[in-house]
Design goal:
alpha/beta; seven-stranded mixed sheet; four-stranded mixed sheet; 13 helices; 15 strands
């Protein structure tokens, strides 16, 4: 055990998860690569959990942070904050939500927490709908709407949460149906569930692509079909874009746009990639919803001048360099390359995803049983080969998660696929 690992264990919680049997300390990065304390270089296919969205040490972002820090680091939301207003204007315009207002937080957990406060206050109800296999954060309220046992340490909650089918296409009671039949069955389940509630449900919160759940997604149009039911009951739709936002899926800038036939969501939460490593989260909502609170509120650190400067520079770079288009092109090539590999390996059940948000689900060969030990072994083998990836999945954490920075090149995608292929063949 390294000295740093021993110090970590002595002072930090046992439940603070670490990757690898011998955890590594990442000391610096550049582009799509990072280096550990021993000088070993790794191709980064996880980006600090989908957070380093454009590139490590992106000059435009580091310059913006340095220049703003040289002026003023902090003032709080009690004062006018030009970088915060500039970024809010851009996000409101990009969100697709009419008459949008933006509230900044420091994380996705806090963003979802704020969205729940708004929805329950606006609807005067503590009843929530969430998706099975979902994950929405670490706070007390976010845990209360998380449909993933591995990330839900308590059943206590101020909310009454009911879980809906639909977030996982290839498992569960509707997996054998066609896409159209799958959507119809999930809508029928939603209708039946609402028939059992008392009073008005506040909102449905859903990840367009489930992140921690293993990059699972429903057929396009499911949430549009849900929206038609929700609208009849006055129920709000919250889209959790913490992992899917900013063009990562390639085909759309926001995950909700694959389900946009019935209009935009009422609330949208975001975080992770927009700061490229800086702590930014937030909520976008229609003005009538955002302004429904009748008490004062502030955010001490949300909307910090430094993080807002980083977000503005990062968003500008992403749009000007069409990183959404790059995610679509390079991600499509990577998915096809991995599917060709998977066809030769019995332990791979499925390669799924969109853009640069790709899941590789592992099972015990010849069965449909999740294989978390295999996932751990591949994670270790990939690191030994020079590739950092993630894990997830509602079925015993047996999904490898690949989410590199959106500037990934074709050559780097091929390099990563080659390392992962070798790691998978260890199975």
């Amino acid at each position: 055990m390294s000295d740093l690992y021993a110090r970590h264990r002595a002072v930090l919680p046992d439940w603070l998860a670490l990757y690898y049997a011998e955890p590594i300390e990442i000391t610096h990065g550049e582009g799509r690569y990072v280096w550990d304390a021993d000088g070993t270089r790794y191709l980064d296919f996880f980006g600090g959990i989908l957070t380093t969205m454009t590139a490590h040490a992106l000059p435009e972002v580091t310059k913006a942070v340095s220049e703003q820090a040289g002026r003023i680091i902090h003032s709080s939301t009690l004062y006018l904050d030009r970088p915060m207003i500039d970024l809010a204007e851009r996000i409101a315009s990009l969100s697709g939500i009419p008459d949008a207002r933006v509230f900044f937080t420091t994380s996705g957990t806090e963003a979802n927490d704020a969205a729940l406060l708004l929805a329950t206050t606006y609807r005067r109800s503590n009843q929530l709908l969430a998706m099975r296999n979902s994950y929405h954060g670490r706070s007390f309220t976010a845990v209360g709407i998380t449909g993933n046992r591995g990330w839900s340490p308590t059943s206590l909650s101020p909310l009454q949460t009911l879980y809906v089918h639909g977030g996982v296409r290839t498992r569960g009671p509707y997996a054998h149906l066609s896409d159209a039949e799958f959507i119809a069955a999930c809508v029928a389940d939603l209708e039946d569930l609402l028939g059992q509630t008392r009073g008005g449900v506040a909102a449905l919160i859903a990840e367009p692509v489930q992140g921690v759940g293993g990059f699972t997604a429903p057929p396009d149009g499911l949430y549009a079909a849900f929206r038609e039911v929700l609208d009849r009951h006055g129920i709000l739709w919250i889209t959790d874009e913490v992992q899917t936002g900013w063009g990562r899926t390639g085909e759309h800038f926001w995950g909700w746009q694959a389900h946009g036939e019935s209009g935009p969501p009422d609330l949208l939460t975001f975080a992770k990639g927009i700061g490229n490593g800086m702590s930014i989260g937030g909520v976008v909502a229609r003005a009538e919803i955002m302004n429904c609170l009748d008490a004062n509120s502030i955010s001490t650190f949300g909307g910090s001048p430094v993080t807002m400067a980083a977000g503005l520079a990062n968003l500008t770079y992403l749009l000007e360099h069409d990183l959404q288009g790059n995610a679509r092109r390079v991600g499509g090539l990577l998915i096809e390359r991995l599917r060709a590999v998977a066809a030769q390996i019995p332990g791979v059940r499925e390669v799924r995803g969109r853009g640069l948000m790709i899941g590789v689900e592992l099972v015990k060969p010849g069965t449909d049983e999740a294989d978390p030990d295999a996932a751990s072994a591949v994670l270790e083998a990939a690191r030994e080969g020079g590739l950092l990836i993630g894990k997830g999945g509602g079925h015993n954490t047996s999904v490898l998660r690949l989410a590199p920075p959106l500037s990934l090149t074709v050559a780097e995608a091929e390099e990563g696929a080659g390392i992962l292929e070798h790691a998978l063949r260890v199975l």
